[in-house]
User: Which sequence fits this backbone?
């Protein structure tokens, strides 16, 4: 019996491709986030190769720190898939062929149009004696739960899609029902901001966080698309949501000028809602971002309802021939100028008969800079209702960073225009 | 003294953000790949939180399996950065302030325009007694090498840019010079293909791999941009390159129709070389990929020398108003048709006065499909020298997968046109 205390979890990721660094262990982080949300904090993670002794060592070490150990990977049908026998051996259990799993394999291959079952796959029907078998709707390796002396080891396939489906459909419910009284779910709320560096945002927040109730922690999460603030609280007393609400009241007035959305929302999602509800559409004229803004907008399904299209006027000839921007203006003001940004926005809007437009021009680097126009200098503009707002900034970082930051800045200014926050 | 035998390494990644799954441990895989290339196989990886006891446990466990342990993270200036004191304590060493590091911190902050040094940063000048200090040109946390009883623990910052720079500039050389006789570098060669599924490529390769010399292994690495084949061999006898050369002779004739580049090269790099040497340039007309092709081309510095620009004709109005594509053709042939793809390529080329053009139209999904035009159906065309080649495929996967695969397929066909492999 497990006492009424907080339980811990651990994750072991198995696979030679992980150890030689050719595959990034995204399963480990995915499981960590899910387990944390469920209220089973992760005490540690292990990454090991396809070697029975190493797999056993990791599970033993993990069981010293955790009550629930999830092992992902090494359940396939080939000779380098060794998790199943390693775990059976570790717990001194026989591997027994499960008739229902055998039947499932025959059915699966027959549905796929094969006349026979590859004999290799039969090992996937062998389970450690006494293990709980969890069906895998997406593949041939079932999930397996081994309960041993109050501890639990859960084996999941390494294919991310299969692992995620088994976890979401079955493992979550198993952990919830077996250990409910030990779980302390963490509640969280995330506020996304743009256009202000982490240090300045921290300064603006200082002097306000002392108004937060106890048991709430605040994290600053900086990225190329802005800084997110995450507040978290363990929901020990059922009042977690109230605490988060109190924090939000303190926080929002401070961050309002930089805030655009909550949670795992991209700014293009926020813009989509605004454009759809206003029944308006958008066009873009991109130079230095070279298609990135259009790509980000169209990453979202259904974007054809509010996105007319884009002109990637990457060289001066194209700016002139497609958008009719006067070469004289480019020569006198410079191709990286607020004037050209403004024309990119306005002419694209008119050419595509759109309601709004974004224009952007700059030096993404690493070459092409000068003392007047350094690498990272970007001018951008938003246009609509006959009005234009232009901006000029210098972004840091490499080419990819400059482009990502510049695209986000332009989208944020467009967000401000749509929400009437410009002048 | 370490005997003349193979050495192992291990990696410990430190940070609460890793354990709650909000940050993916990319440092671990990056270091694993570098260490493997260097000839120090990685025996295991650990991920732990910002807690001194856990950090120490992981390093102890790692030292049982490895001669060189790299710890990344927890070297920052704040109260939750605990790697430095945890390691000093583990090896019973005092933390001593390094005057040169203190001076470096003052200089750094003064260059950044600050009048004083935040006192918090001073902890970053404290090093475990006897440690080798490695300068960090990108940040305030130096790298630290602690040698102890023939084993080595190397502390690196968690910020990927800083960690990579310190590893590449200093750690690599340190390992090479200290342990040269124990290193068995793995040699590898990677062949990138496009347009053929993994299983078919494996079938085409079957019957050829038995001509490979021993000690060479072949891996199929499928991704959304195609399948790469990697051959690797341990260079124990100095004849590794010869073995790889023999494999290449066997492999190349088989994969030639699908091959476009070797190593870590994006197809846009290959296209850049071809266009630059031919002194030709390119324009694109994108519908379903919505800017992705233009973005990929302009991800590469210097692309303005061969990329005219793109027309993101995302809706029908734009196809008609900007590119003059007859709405009648769209109505009769369908917006997803080889005719429209062909017109997107040709009209974009002419409008931007380019030498070559790519056109693409399709249904990226998840909505918008029909029985005639299912989700994933994409038509694309390449145009140049007055000739056009059109293609039609159905790509699987979600919206992002369809768009990525479609963009790659179009770029691959353009590669085939430039290398005279079409018709």
Assistant:
């Amino acid at each position: 019996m497990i006492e009424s205390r907080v339980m811990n979890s651990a994750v072991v990721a198995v696979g030679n491709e992980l150890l030689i660094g050719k595959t990034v262990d995204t399963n480990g982080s995915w499981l960590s986030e899910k387990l944390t949300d469920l209220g089973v904090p992760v005490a540690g993670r292990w990454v090991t190769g396809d070697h029975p002794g190493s797999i056993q060592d990791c599970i033993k070490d993990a069981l010293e720190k955790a009550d629930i150990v999830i092992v992902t990977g090494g359940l396939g049908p080939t000779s380098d898939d060794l998790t199943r026998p390693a775990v059976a051996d570790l717990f001194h259990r026989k591997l027994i062929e499960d008739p229902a799993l055998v039947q499932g394999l025959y059915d699966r291959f027959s549905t796929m149009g094969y006349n026979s079952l590859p004999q290799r796959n039969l090992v996937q029907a062998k389970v450690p004696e006494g293990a709980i078998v969890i069906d895998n709707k997406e593949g041939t390796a079932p999930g397996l739960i081994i309960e041993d002396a109050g501890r639990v080891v859960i084996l999941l396939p390494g294919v991310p899609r299969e692992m995620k489906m088994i976890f979401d459909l079955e493992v979550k419910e198993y952990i919830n029902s077996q250990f409910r009284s030990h779980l302390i779910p963490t509640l969280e709320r995330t506020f996304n901001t743009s256009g202000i560096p982490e240090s300045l945002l921290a300064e603006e927040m200082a002097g306000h966080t002392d108004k937060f109730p106890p048991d709430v922690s605040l994290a600053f999460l900086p990225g190329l698309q802005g800084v997110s603030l995450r507040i978290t609280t363990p929901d020990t007393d059922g009042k977690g949501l109230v605490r988060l609400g109190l924090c939000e009241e303190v926080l929002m007035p401070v961050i309002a000028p930089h805030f655009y959305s909550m949670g795992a929302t991209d700014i293009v999602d926020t813009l989509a809602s605004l454009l759809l509800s206003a029944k308006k559409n958008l066009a873009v004229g991109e130079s230095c971002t070279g298609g990135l803004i259009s790509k980000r907008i169209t990453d979202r399904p259904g974007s054809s309802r509010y996105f007319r299209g884009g002109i990637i006027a990457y060289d001066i000839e194209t700016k002139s021939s497609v958008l009719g921007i006067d070469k004289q203006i480019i020569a006198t003001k410079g191709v990286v100028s607020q004037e050209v940004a403004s024309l990119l926005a306005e002419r694209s809007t008119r050419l595509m008969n759109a309601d709004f437009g974004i224009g952007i021009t700059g030096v993404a680097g690493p070459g092409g800079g000068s003392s007047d126009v350094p690498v990272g200098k970007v001018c951008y503009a938003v246009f609509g209702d006959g009005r234009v707002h232009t901006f000029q900034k210098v972004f840091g970082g490499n080419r990819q960073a400059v482009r990502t930051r510049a695209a986000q800045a332009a989208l944020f200014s467009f967000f401000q225009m749509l929400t009437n926050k410009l002048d």
Notes: Chain A touches chain B through 74 residues (CB under 8 Å). The mean pLDDT of chain A is 93. Chain A has 14 helices and 17 strands. Residues 160-179 of chain A form the longest helix (20 residues).
